[in-house]
Hints:
Blueprint: E1 5-8, E2 15-16, H1 18-29, H2 38-45, H3 50-61, H4 67-83, E3 88-89, H5 93-102, E4 106-110, H6 115-124, E5 133-135, E6 155-159, H7 165-170, E7 175-177
Parallel strand pairs: 1-4, 1-6, 4-5, 6-7
Antiparallel strand pairs: 2-3
Helix pairs in contact: 1-4, 3-4, 4-6
Amino acid sequence: MSIKAVLFDFDGVVVQSELLHRKTFLDVLAPFGIDVSVERWFQEFAGTGSRNIITRLLNEAGVKRNVDGLMAIRRDLYAELIKRGELRLVNGVRGFLQKLREMKIKCAVVSGGHRSNVNLALDRLGLKEFFEVVIGAEDITKRKIKPTNIKTKSLVFIISLPLQISFYRNINHPFYLSFN
């Protein structure tokens, strides 16, 4: 198989962001008495999307609030953390991207995160030049792709969440799991 492109999940693959995401959600939800342990965060909420996280936690707490408004506040808080330089790259990612460029393999970010924050992070971390395409939450209608959407075996997906493993195994498509 000749690899023509590599599609990267963003959070946990390119950047070490999950604890920053948790922090911003808890900052937004703390006024309602909501807290989530790190262990529960990673088991139940990491990678499930802002709307799901906020809606679920508000429902658990019996709180009725404007989810869209809270999502916007959270997105802006996360952007501020990026601007302050609190986001870190996953070890080895810059060298890996340089190697892919040398091999003339195209790269894209395919993330369930907000495209504006992904682009901001790529700019701040000096990685924008490596990615020809950035797809974010605003560009998709469903959080996970279906096997029928994959038209070529020339792609490699790099993912971070164990829940995605069964999907890629079921479609017999190459993927690499990022542990960090």
